[in-house]
Design a protein that fits this description.
The complex is a heterodimer of chains A (about 425) and B (about 100). Chain A has about 425 residues and is of the alpha+beta class. Chain A contains 11 helices and 24 strands. Chain B folds into 2 domains: about 30 residues, no CATH class; about 70 residues, Immunoglobulin-like, CATH 2.60.40.2000. Strand 2 of chain A pairs antiparallel with strand 5 of chain B, so a sheet runs across the interface.
Chain lengths: ~425, ~100
């Protein structure tokens, strides 16, 4: 605290030498002139003295036959007078502080945490629609409305929390882990049919709800109704009185054949990096970007990669400025030929990927016949497969309701 | 001659004054002008009620008290601050003597 007061008031470090420094010290004490940190350096003494004290020193020096010289000036009054001589620096400093104050009134970064099913792009688009974007004023943001909007517009989101940290808008969301049950009142009125999603033969069928329209072994085409969502209620004379609409539910497997053909060229171009590269500094603000290279890139073939970082002050004070570097790497193209072993591995790898993709989709392979045809230029893999999968989808029922009994009565009369 | 008499530390007048101050339980530093020296370890000393600085080097600091001179001996001695009434000395204090 004392140091701060001394700094604010300013002080001078002086060097004192001469006949009787002790007498000078006594006189300073008697005149209530504050001195501190007095050190003896053999031939002379150094001491800290207040600015007022320094100006009152002259008669005392004369009286005691000592001399004094200023060694250093410290404190705010000296700093200010020094700054006054560097006007541009002071202007720059003020501009910097002003810029900081102004930019800290805007949001420069939006982060979303806790989203799994909803992608960040979807949520960012939603925020844009709601008028929440980077470079918007903090004061224009209604956090409570944003939280409520997110909860209302996305059924999957059960909890939201938005907060401003510095210039960053942090949105935490919690998605519903439990299965979502739709309000199916309209389905109860209309009914849903199960239809074939592709051509094939029905190989397995268990119906839980609805009226089955096909049986095992039947050939169906895409769009054919497999299970109807309209359950008829019969009159005594075996005519349909009305339909009860349900959501058709069944386990149905369709079998179908599929041909796959994969081609791989023996000749290929290999990319060889020469090791030559150019680092170009880039910086920018928002969408605009400037690179510090004014000459053409002297390579015929090259790859470009870019690393960018956003300028931030402290932990969360992001500024709308980016900096980084663009790396341009030269490469040469060398024509090469795959060996037989490489060709085999390449085709096998692609084939394995297709099989695993089918497996992920829940498709079972019943039968497969794979042949590879080779010539000098390319290898071709032909595969004929018998596949089984539950290729069905729900559509609103096409069965029209039966005409009302009143109309029927009128017709009878 | 008169001046020499006054400088005698234990003059009858001083003795009687001390007796009165002691019997009335009055503070000795204000009544008798005695210096108070507080030494913390051998690194710091705080002196109150001194009259002036007689000598100041890194090896010794001699202060004038009312009745005696107080001499600090040691090495790297320096005065941190001083006012008309008190003073703080720091450094390695080897001896404190009253002359």
């Amino acid at each position: 605290m004392l140091h701060w007061i001394q700094y604010l008031r300013g002080y001078v470090v002086i060097k004192v030498w001469g006949y009787s420094v002790e007498r000078l010290l006594n006189l300073l004490g008697n005149h209530d002139i504050l001195v501190w940190d007095i050190e003896d350096h053999g031939g002379y003494h150094t001491m800290h003295i207040s600015i007022d004290g320094f100006f009152a020193l002259k008669p005392l020096l004369k009286k005691t036959g000592t001399r004094a010289a200023v060694v250093g000036k410290f404190g705010l009054p000296f700093f200010v007078s020094k700054m006054m001589r560097r006007k541009l620096f002071v202007v720059g400093l003020f501009c910097c502080i002003l810029f900081w104050c102004l930019t800290s009134r805007f949001i420069w970064d939006i982060r979303i945490e806790g989203n799994y099913a909803l992608t960040e792009d979807v949520l960012m688009d939603y925020l844009k629609e709601q008028g929440v974007h980077t470079a918007m004023k903090k004061s224009a943001l209604d956090i409570a409305a944003l939280e409520q909007g997110l909860r209302e517009d996305y059924d999957l989101i059960t909890w939201t929390s938005a907060q401003l940290k510095g210039t960053t808008l942090l949105i935490h969301i919690k998605e519903n882990d439990m299965p979502v049950y739709d309000d199916r009142a309209d389905i109860q009125e209309q009914g849903m049919d199960l239809v074939a999603a592709r051509d094939g033969v029905v190989t397995y069928m268990i119906t839980r709800s609805g009226v089955p329209c096909v049986s095992c072994g039947d050939s169906v085409q895409k769009g054919d109704i497999l299970v109807s969502g309209a359950v008829p209620v019969y009159n005594e004379d075996a005519t349909v009185r009305k339909y009860q609409y349900v959501e058709a539910d069944a386990d149905i497997t369709l079998c179908y054949g599929q041909n796959i053909s994969l081609e791989e060229s023996v000749a290929y171009d290999e990319k060889c990096y020469t090791g030559e590269k150019i680092d170009i500094p880039v910086f920018g603000s928002g969408e605009k970007q400037v690179s510090l290279r004014f000459f053409d890139i002297p390579y015929d073939y090259y790859d470009t990669s870019e690393e960018k970082k956003q300028v931030k002050l402290l932990d969360h004070l992001y500024l709308p400025l980016y900096y980084g570097k663009r790396t341009v790497q030269e490469y040469e193209i060398t024509p090469k030929m795959h060996t037989d072993q490489e060709m085999k591995t390449l085709l096998q790898e692609r084939w394995r990927k297709i099989i695993s993709t089918l497996g992920e989709k829940g498709v079972q392979i019943v039968e497969k016949n794979v042949t590879i045809k080779k010539n000098d230029k390319k290898w071709v893999l032909h595969a004929h497969m018998q596949l089984e999968e539950p290729a069905v989808k729900l559509v609103p029922t096409a069965t029209e309701p039966v005409a009302s009994p009143k109309e029927e009565d009128g017709a009878a009369q | 001659m008169r001046r020499e008499k006054r400088r005698q530390p234990f003059s009858p007048f001083e003795k009687s004054k001390e007796l009165i101050v002691e019997s009335l339980k009055l503070p000795k530093d204000t009544m008798l002008g005695a210096a108070i020296v507080t030494v913390t370890g051998n690194r710091e000393a705080f002196i109150e009620n001194y009259k002036g600085i007689l000598e100041y080097t890194t090896e010794s600091i001699v202060l004038q008290g009312k009745n005696a001179k107080i001499c600090f001996e040691g090495s790297s001695l320096s005065i941190d601050y001083y006012t008309n009434e008190d003073m703080k000395i720091s450094g390695k204090i080897d001896a404190l003597r009253y002359i």
